[in-house]
Design goal:
mainly alpha, two-stranded antiparallel ribbon
Length: 132
């Protein structure tokens, strides 16, 4: 198997022409060097920690193999420390709570301190039947 030719075909001709950044092109070549090699045909390549390359199967068999054998998504799967997820979840939850708080109606102190909310100021909701 002409591995160098296949890596060049995929990395430079088919996909590589879409890569404009030199560092991204270098990353693409590194991935191809890691995954497109002789051991791939022998089933000895790990695509992720604990996830070996699938055996030669049909389309349905590949999906079943992936569904049954792919480890759950975790920072470890991407080569990160398990605590990396804590930072991501913290930022995500802060954004969620900030959005929820921004959606809350705000009390206004205008008009001699009556404390009229946005809903009270806008009036009751109108229905289609009352407009006709």
């Amino acid at each position: 198997v002409p591995w160098d030719d296949l890596r060049y075909l995929f990395g430079e001709i088919m996909y590589g022409g879409h890569i404009t950044d030199d560092w991204d092109r270098r990353l693409c070549r590194t991935y191809l060097a890691e995954y497109i090699r002789t051991e791939m045909l022998e089933g000895e390549v790990l695509l992720a920690p604990g996830f070996q390359i699938p055996p030669n199967l049909d389309y349905k068999g590949y999906h079943e193999y992936i569904d049954e054998n792919l480890p759950p998504e975790s920072p470890y799967l991407y080569g990160l420390h398990p605590n990396a997820e804590i930072g991501f979840l913290t930022v995500t939850s802060e954004k969620l709570f900030r959005t929820v708080l921004e959606m809350q109606p705000k009390e206004t102190d205008s008009g001699a301190g009556t404390g009229v909310s946005r809903e009270e100021k806008a009036g009751p909701p109108h229905t289609l039947s009352s407009a006709m």
